[in-house]
């Protein structure tokens, strides 16, 4: 017996749905025509597993497995290989699999690549190859279509771990295994095999380092070694430099300077010499093609050589004035990845103190770098309590950097040591915030309540923040009683500024909180001096006002909620900290001040990006998206939510991603995209049900029902919406269901459920009276018009339209005009109906509400009026574009550069580049000038048509009045 854990084979493939879809498409087409695919991914990501899955899935013919074979492959020509493949498929289609083609010799790879290019679709050969992406793809294989494998997402990796261990791993062990594996399934299995059953269950300490050289080399297929001493030093120096920068690219000049210190003799400049195949040079930055290989190179080096490289890097960084990074490399030069600290190890203790002090200090540094520095300081600290404190500080910084899995692993390391109540409270605060963003919000609520209790004595300001974050968790869960209990009055927090705070901001419409963990005042610095008491006092006042205003709002004391929430908004106008700006935006949304919410959200987004607080970016985009929705600007809401979804997924914030999907579903529900609505609704509900997100679930269900209503299916819409708005235990989220009432009333009236519609109007009237929703007063008049007898409906519709003019918002105004036009048509007042319906059509087209515009066109046709088409009857080529592509095309047509477009839309330049290529292809243009001309012509035609529509509407109203 070796003491290792027995790892059974995974029962199923975890994740890889995108890759399997591509493989399935290849297999499905083989009976009629052939194709090729190249699977590429770093070692250990499961290329072989996918090839085996494809081979098992293919039933239409034989499966051939190609291998080079000793002494034979180099002599096989492309013609011979091609003939063999065609012979094999003479009677039936065939799937040909070749794994690890990068290991074949050069002539064999060349022959395979040439044969692949000469295959015709009529040959009915499916060629499926795999290569490791830790080196450049051979030119012979580069033309083949590629399917990339990325590391598994945390939930998929966790499912794999539970699958192969039958859930036997202790929670703390599980978190550290997942963090060390970094989504690489083979490495995860290698780490599990390394542990004894007692270690896996948490009964014995884990080996350090957990991912040692053996496990890494096993996964990577060996430790790469360059062809010369210089190449080996270059690989190790780039790998060591990446330790401080989270494995990202590093400055080539810095590497060259370190190599000169490492070897006094002149060394070649890495920017001029041929690089080892594991490295890529982009501009002046060097990086490994594979993060796994980078880790393997560093771990497999001898201790002496690794220390020497870190000393050289420390000299370079310190010489350049980068003290924190220099200290970090200096600490690594003292020993291996984690030397066993001892009280007598004076050098280690001094290095730990210097690192922690520098990480606490005000020197510019990213949250990732601070997390690494605190982690290393903890590893070098002998005292258990101080070690736990430094691991907790590292977890706080990792969370701010958008690395929740790393934060969880650091918290697990902190739990191994006894610590004071305040440190345990900070750890629970980080854990609660992490769960609030990606986990069951009920668990988050309990962790945050515990944090508030543990912090109450020594850090009352942090305790108040934790309590407010706990209210956010209850809000997200739709638990009104728990939310009120958490917001109950208590002793006001003192104004001292703790070194590490978590600022929980409550979300409007029930959004969960956004919390900063770098100090209550939003800085990265140490405990505040007397000069910083002003910002701390302001923070305490904001927390108090937000808490009071929230509670008053939830208790229905609307008159008492406005003043404290307005004070939160007002303080945000002079703030620069992203946490305070997020709180201001949240309060503005509660008050219905969408302009202030947009301003606060936009400023919070800019501040978070400038500070590198990746964890706060998705929440800022969520607030912006909600503000645009409340203002009726669905295309802008969609833009923010699209970017918010991407950033949330990158930051491991599944709950925030669910909110963005709900916004995307709501935006798409007014467009002619039922499949998009269904996709986002399904994804949002999947997370909402697993994590107890009542608010996201309500929004997603509202989107599905509104899509039904827009497509003329009122019975389905009324059934869905009735569950959300009618009294009962299944009612929708307490802060959202009132927003759904106007949709329900419309659907219920069309479905002849008038009494149900009348049941919910009193509550909606109270909501409209509060003034937090700029559209509510007009919507209330519209609802009364739908339910009123004929002699009163006319006046109510006119009153609703007048209120819409005051509130703005094309979509809701057009909906009222559409309903009024339908009512007029059924009362046989065709000329008035034409005017209202024409106005509705113009409004829907203006805001991109295609599915509702179709209703208006149908009504106009029923009147015998031919609705106008884009381009005066000619097809509008811009209609081929997606909403995002159309937005980008319009910006470019106005002369904006790709970078300016990216800044305007809040997306990356790479995203703009990608969509612009799609735009050029869809429109058949070859230059920005041609694009500008086409957009200008289309918009001129649209403006002319809009003017004609307005003239027609005015004429119809005038003649209708005369008659």
UniProtKB/TrEMBL annotation:
Residues 874-939 form the HTH luxR-type domain. Keywords: DNA-binding. Signal peptide: none annotated. Pfam families: GerE. SMART domains: HTH_LUXR (SM00421). Residues 523-540 have a biased composition (Low complexity). CDD domains: LuxR_C_like. This is LuxR C-terminal-related transcriptional regulator. Residues 487-540, 940-963 are annotated as: Disordered.
